[in-house]
Every structure is written in structure tokens, then in C-alpha cells.
Amino acid sequence: MKNLTFKQLRYFEALARHGHFRRAAEACGISQPALSMQIKEMEEEVGMELFERGARQVRLTGFGEEFAPRIREILRSVDELGDIARASRDRLVGRLRIGVIPTVAPYLLPSLLGNLGRLHKGLDVHVRETQTPRLIQELEEGRLDTAIVALPVSEAALTEITLFTENFVLVRPGADAGKPVPEPEAVREMRLLLLEEGHCFREQALSFCNMDMRTPPRDVLDASSLSTLVQMVDAGIGVTLIPEMAVAVETRSASVSVARFKDPEPSRTIGMVWRRTSPLASQLLQISEVVRRSIGALRDQHDGQRARDNVPGQ
Amino acid sequence: MKNLTFKQLRYFEALARHGHFRRAAEACGISQPALSMQIKEMEEEVGMELFERGARQVRLTGFGEEFAPRIREILRSVDELGDIARASRDRLVGRLRIGVIPTVAPYLLPSLLGNLGRLHKGLDVHVRETQTPRLIQELEEGRLDTAIVALPVSEAALTEITLFTENFVLVRPGADAGKPVPEPEAVREMRLLLLEEGHCFREQALSFCNMDMRTPPRDVLDASSLSTLVQMVDAGIGVTLIPEMAVAVETRSASVSVARFKDPEPSRTIGMVWRRTSPLASQLLQISEVVRRSIGALRDQHDGQRARDNVPGQ
DNA sequence: TCGTTGCGATAAGATCCTCTTATGAAAAAC
DNA sequence: GTTTTTCATAAGAGGATCTTATCGCAACGA
User: Fold this and answer.
1) Distance from residue A54 (CA) to nucleotide D3 (C1'), in Å?
2) Distance (Å) from CA B30 to C1' C15?
3) 3-state secondary structure of A162
4) Hey, of A28, A41, A76, A78, which one would you mutate to test binding to chain B, going by the most B CBs within 10 A of its CB?
5) Where would I find the beta strands (DSSP E) of B119-278?
6) DSSP characters for B238-265?
């Protein structure tokens, strides 16, 4: 049964339908002898006669009739493969496994998932939220299709594209609202609250204050989310830095003040990365556009809120 | 999608399983470039990349993963075709449509169907009981596989084999039991009860009495079954002829007498016919053996009963 | 950083398969 | 009895598929 071919199945089906070699051959677009040979070969392959050649008509044998519905079913399945392929040709479809770092996920995802669902119906999005090193590892193992992280990643096996750059802002207790913005070095002397180890944002914040990773600030509090940090500031425990993106969400229900730094403002660049070999490259570029659009929407929203709250703009 | 081949599907499956071209090729018994080419061709056919070629590993794309289970299902179905063929190779299997004339069916079928069911489990027997011309027509149209009729049929398109020959016996009212057996011509003068037009047995009986079909006997009664004929005789309405085969069943509950004719006894030959082109020929020969065995069992039963009832033997 | 190694892609030629046209044989139709 | 219809067979052309040899690329090790 190893040498059965699709052609033979199609020819079988045509012959069963027409009951006539010449007409069936015509329907298949081949000559009558070609069909005779293929049917014969198929019968040899199967080891049973499939058709009864009468003087005036060709009929399925009882055995052939057992084959016919199964063969039709197989041909249908194969045609369906074609349908699926055709349907997915230019459309982004199937599973998309996307990783996002925790300091981006809660702000970006609601908007992004909404847009993806609207723009790419039939796309099955899986989200993984964890820290950069694990995302990169899973990406390289093929367990993720892409990741949204802070650049640069600098992995030879990965392609990275920039999505946007955002500044960090200082979050202080509401009472500090009017005070001058401290110099980076001055922040070192304040009670600076930071995320726990492993978050790239922690390193970025430390780096801005010119702090070495081996000489941590006086009193660190290892929070697991920006939300916790802001709540801590609100409780008067200290100050913290958060990315602009998080301002709208995190300061909404807290009486804290937000202050921009003087130039050069601290910032981070968020980008998308994927395996250089990924065949999804072109689709991922499409996705990156959707991400930018989602960010844009967030920014507008943020700006609107900033105006209402009288938060210093840039 | 018209040029997909089974080979490609098998190669796809192997590559998906091994995640490695060389090993997959080895598993398929071909060289690595051959596999590369077929996969590439398949991808072109589909219009999508199915595998992601990484530096160190080969993985299914998300799209490929949608294909994989379907392809496995198709391969499974094809293998099943092989299984079915192998299982049916030497065994008589599937549907067997058998036609039987009404003057044989009620006596032969109980035993025959029992034997067929016992000897060929999995054989799906369909029985059609009607008169010879219709059986022959349905046979030639391919709506029956074989028919059991009185020979000869003399159709060029049909093969016929003899199953057995049986005599006709005279059935008279029980009161006539001791009377001498009449000459054939004498029967003509008796009130001879016959089957309705169309039954071959009617013609055979008439022929025995040297009656032309255009000069029917004085008082015909067109019965639709031998059973009816015997009941009529039992009621004293006349006499009839029935084949030996029917004696045991039909005279069991009637007080009629059965008499053999003097040589040459009237008789008929029952045989099996099928299309000369039927691929079932060899299986039908097997079937014919089962029929003979069934007839033999009937005869023995009949002989036993004849001995008990003191019916004249031959 | 530079060979080395492993892997898949590509190239060129041999082989096998499948198709076509031409023809044969058998049965049916006229 | 001749013609027609139909499927099978034969022989050769063309195409598909395989093999061996080789390339290019990336990862790995010294």
C-alpha cells in the first residue's frame, strides 16, 4: 500500500463516478490508456479487483464499493488542506505566541489584544508575561513566536525592531508636587523603591541614578510590580521611577505626584524580537504595526489625562 | 493542491516527527536532498512555509502545526485502506446479492443462509426472490451478484453451473394414495393446478404433460406459490406437480398423497448463474459449494421424512 | 578569531514513472 | 458479416524523483 498515489485515488473516483473509462479519463484530463494503467496498477497494489469490466459498462465490485466512500473521504480531506492553505495565504492566522515583559504587559496588552482580535480574526493569541531572560530563552527554543522587551537584546539569533521609546518619570508623594525635580544623583539619597531582581526596568532605573548594581541604594524595597511601587509611594514610604506608559494606569487611584526629569531624561526603548529564521517575519512586521497603533492610542489617552490632571508635559 | 503526493505527506510526517532532515530522510529510506526537495515542493504547493529551518533544529511553523494532525489523519486513512484490502484478500467479504426463484427459495434459503452465515462471517447476504426473467435482468444490470434459477438460461453474458437436478412428483388428494400413477398425457385430463404465468416451474410442468402453452389445461388455477397449490389439492380441487425439494415442507401439514411418475420422470435442473465478467467468480464457486451442501442436508431430511411417511422412494 | 563540524540547500546527471499515440481484441450493434 | 464501441496492451517521449557531489551558513572549540 506504500505506492498508492493521489492520482490513482482521483482516477478511481472518476471511474467510479462515470462508469466508463474514456469519459472518466477525459474528466481527469488524461488519455484512456493512462487511466486503464493507473487503475490496473491500483488494483495490483490493493490485491483485489476494484472494478468489474463488463462489455457495456464498468462497475465497482463489492469490494470497490467498500473503498469508494473511504477514498472520497480522503480526497475531501486533501482538498481541505488546500482550502486551509488558501485561506491562510495572506492572512495572519493560527497561533501566535507572544511574550511581554511585566513592566509593559499590563499597559499594552488590553489595547493590543483588542486590536489584534479586531484586525486579525482567527488569530489565536497566546500571551506569556515574564522577565526578559526567560522570554529570550523560550523564543530561542521555539516556544514563543515573538517577544516585546526592552532593547537592546543583542542576540545574534534574533531580529529586533524598535517599537517606541519612552521616558521614566519620578513618582513622589502628592505633597512633593511643587518641589524641584532632583538631579539623578540626588535620587540616590532618597528612599528609592525598586522592582525585585530580574526586571530589566530595575537595572535601567539604577543605571540612571549612576548606581552600580553592587552598591544598591540605601533602602530598597523589592516590589514585584509597578503598581506596588506606586502604592508604596502613596503610603509615603519613598519615591520611585516608572515608565511613562504606566503613569495613566498606576497614578489614577493614588495621590502621588509625577515629575519629569530634566534633560537628558531617562528612557528605555521597547522593541519586538523574533528568531531571525522565523517564517513569520512578514506577519510579525504586521503585528508590530498593530503594537505601534496600540501604543499610540495609549499615549493619546495618557496625554488627555495629563492635561486634565495638570501633570507637567514634555 | 492538485500535485500533492502521498510521498510528500509521508515525508512531511517524518520530518515533523524527527525535526531533522538527515534523520527523517533516513527514516524514509531516501537521501537528505531528496527530502529537502520534496518538502520545498510541498511548501510551494501549499504556498506557505511548513517548517522553520533553524541553525540547530527544524521546527513546524504554526501553520505547519495546523497541517500536521490532518496529514496524520489522512495517512492513517490510507493505511486503513491497505488493512481492509489485506483483510479481505482471500476471505469472502462484503455484500453478496443473491437472487432465487420462488419455487426454490422457501426450501433452500433457510438452510443456505444458515450455512453462509456460519461459514462466511462478515458476509452481508442480500436475497432477492422473484421470477427468472427479472433475476436475469437484475443480474445483467449489476444489481445482483448471482442467481439460483432453473437451467438453462442461455445468456451469452452469463456463466452457469449446475447445482442439482430434481424430479417432479404428483400431488393428489390423500384418498388417491393407492391409485396407479397416471401417464403424463392422462394428467392433461385431470384438474391440474398450476402456478401463475411467469414461473418457470409452470412451463416445465406443462411441458411434461405435452401441453402447448397455447392450449392450457381445462381448468387452470393460477396460484402464486407451491404452498397454495398443495392446499388446493388438499381441499380436493385437483392435482398438481411439485418439485421433490418442496415435498417435505409442503405436504407436512396436508393430507395429500405424493406419487412419483414412471420413467422418464419429469425433472428440472437448478443452477447458479453470474456475469461472465464478475470478479467474484472464484468466490461464487465457493458459494455454490455451500449451496450444494445445503441441498444435501435438505435431501437427507427429506429422505428421512419420506421413510417415516411411507412415501414411495425412487 | 580562526579552523572545524554539522546541517540544510543546490546542482547535475541517472533512473524510474507516467503519459501519449498507435494498435489489438472482444463484444455489441447494425 | 461488417462496423462500432470499449477496454487492454505496446512503445516511446517527457517529466518527476532520486542519487552523489558540493556549497554556504552558523555554531562550536581551541
Assistant:
1) 20
2) 14
3) strand
4) A78
5) 123-129, 146-151, 158-173, 192-195, 222-223, 239-243, 256-260, 267-275
6) -EEEEEHHHHHHHTTTS-EEEEEPPSSP
Query: Tell me, in Å, how far CA of B142 is from C1' of C28?
Result: 18
Q: What is the pLDDT along chain A (314 residues), one digit of tens a residue?
A: 667 888 899 999 888 888 888 888 888 888 889 998 899 888 888 888 888 887 778 888 888 888 888 898 898 788 778 867 876 776 666 778 899 999 999 999 999 999 998 988 878 888 999 999 888 888 877 778 899 999 888 888 888 899 999 999 999 998 888 888 887 777 767 888 888 878 888 888 878 876 655 555 555 567 888 998 899 899 888 889 999 999 988 888 888 999 998 878 889 999 999 888 776 777 888 889 999 999 988 777 666 655 555 555 43
Give the pLDDT band (50/70/90) at residue B264: confident
Look at the block and give the residue holding cell 425439494: B245
Rg (CA), chain A: 32
* Residues 27-56 in B contacting A (C-alpha not used; CB under 8 Å): 46-49, 52-55
Residue at grid coordinates 505633597:
A175
Q: How many residues does chain A have?
A: 314
* A123–chain B Cβ distance below 8 A for any pair: no
Highest mean pLDDT: which range of A225-234, B81-90, B135-144, B175-184: A225-234
The answer to whether the A6-71 and A165-267 domains have the same CATH topology is no
On whether the CB atoms of residues A193 and A229 are closer than 8 A, the answer is: yes
Q: Which residue's CA shows the smallest distance to C1' of C27?
A: A55
Residue A258 near chain B (CB below 8 Å): no
CA B284 to chain centroid, in Å, comes to 8
Classify A85-162+270-307 by CATH class. alpha beta
Distance CA A238, CA A140 (A): 39
Q: Do B94 and A52 touch (CB under 8 A)?
A: no
Which CATH number is A165-267 given? 3.40.190.10
Residue carrying C-alpha cell 512555509: B49
Q: Would you state the pLDDT for residue B314?
A: 39
Contact A266, A142 (CB under 8 A): no
Q: Break chain B into its structural domains and give their ranges.
A: 6-71, 85-162+270-307, 165-267
User: How distant is the Cα of A74 from the closest Cα of chain B, in angstroms?
Assistant: 6
Q: Is A78 on the interface with B (CB under 8 A)?
A: yes
Instruction: Quote the CA–CA distance of B144 and B135 in Å, as a whole number.
Output: 8
CA distance A113 to chain B (A): 19
Question: Residues, chain B, total?
Answer: 314
Closest CA relative to residue A163, chosen from A296, A293, A272:
A272
pLDDT confidence of residue A92? 67
What is d(CA B69, CA B124) in angstroms, rounded to the nearest whole number?
Answer: 34
Question: How far is it, in rounded angstroms, from Cα A25 to Cα A18?
Answer: 9
Which cell numbers hold the place of A60?
A: 465497482
3-class secondary structure, B177: coil
Q: Is domain A6-71 in CATH 1.10.10.10, yes or no?
A: yes
